[in-house]
Amino acid sequence: MFELSKSISFFCTPTELVADPIKSSRYPIRVGGMIVKGSIVRHGDSVTFSITDLGTELEVTYRGVLPPMFGEDVGAIAKGRFVDGVFIAEELLAKHDEKYMPKKYSSSDAAVIGSS
Q1: Residues marked as binding for heme?
Q2: Most buried residue among 21, 41, 58, 103 by CB atoms closer than 10 A?
Q3: Between these two residues, 96 and 39, which has the higher pLDDT value?
């Protein structure tokens, strides 16, 4: 059972994580949201940016190869730990933008969907 619990990672929004930072203290978790425009700062082989669920912004740092679709106003999911108010990501995924969403969704719906 212990091995299974090490491979499970929970998903939450920035608002949920900031409200309950203990969620990330024991095991890595996944947090998702839209990358905030103007928040991407590159530092050599690492990057710092913020993601939002339209309620809370969360600072994320990541070291590694960025996904091809990574950029401002793009949905992202990061797996890692929340340490001292910053989410330290060990994995990073970029999600499709709204042009890949079904026509029934508006751009504001896409932002919310991108965070889940």
Answers
A1: 96, 100
A2: 58
A3: 39
Of 56, 59, 109, the C-alpha closest to 85 is 59
How buried is residue 106: exposed, middle or buried, by Cβ count under 10 Å (0-12/13-18/19+)?
exposed
Which residues fall in the annotated binding site? 96, 100
Span 25-49, pLDDT tens digits: 677 899 999 999 999 999 999 999 9
Stretch 61-78: mean pLDDT? 94
Dihedral, CA of residue 96, residue 53, residue 115 and residue 9, to nearest 10: 130
Sign of CA dihedral 104, 16, 88, 79: negative
Q: In whole angstroms, what is the distance from residue 34 CA to residue 72 CA?
A: 8
How far, in Å, CA of 111 to CA of 106, rounded?
A: 9
Domains and CATH numbers, the chain: 8-114 (2.40.50.140)
Checking if the pLDDT of 113 tops 70, the result is no
